[in-house]
Design brief:
mainly alpha
Length: 121
């Protein structure tokens, strides 16, 4: 039960922070979801650092890892919003923004995870 509570609390904080970032960075006029992009890239960096610390001489406990990686990062990042926003870009015919957003999200997201892991080595 303790593990579920840790994931729940971390996820709540992550979701609220994602909402705030999206509220201020997503651009309704152009439809470009800068907030979701920022949350997903920052979340990728965070999870790289968190899991890197957890693997490095057990720097983080299992409870801390559940709270931060599974809970916070799970609530902070969002594949469902990413998929929906890509659908909206395609529906509007903005194929260039769709391609840039999709490719940049995957490439920069992977780089951010690896960079986070690198930072804690």
């Amino acid at each position: 039960m303790k593990h579920i509570l840790l994931v729940f609390v971390g996820g709540g904080f992550g979701s609220v922070l994602r909402y705030v970032i999206g509220k201020y960075l997503n651009n309704p006029e152009t439809g470009i979801p800068y907030g979701t992009f920022a949350a997903n890239i920052l979340g990728s960096l965070f999870i790289g650092v968190i899991l890197g610390l957890a693997a490095k001489n057990n720097t983080l406990s299992q409870n801390q890892t559940l709270l931060l990686a599974t809970g916070f990062c799970g609530g902070f990042t969002t594949f469902s919003s990413f998929a929906y926003e890509n659908g909206m870009l395609l529906k509007s015919g903005d194929f260039a923004s769709f391609a840039i957003y999709t490719i940049a999200s995957f490439v920069i997201g992977f780089i951010a995870v690896f960079f986070g892991l690198y930072l804690v080595k």
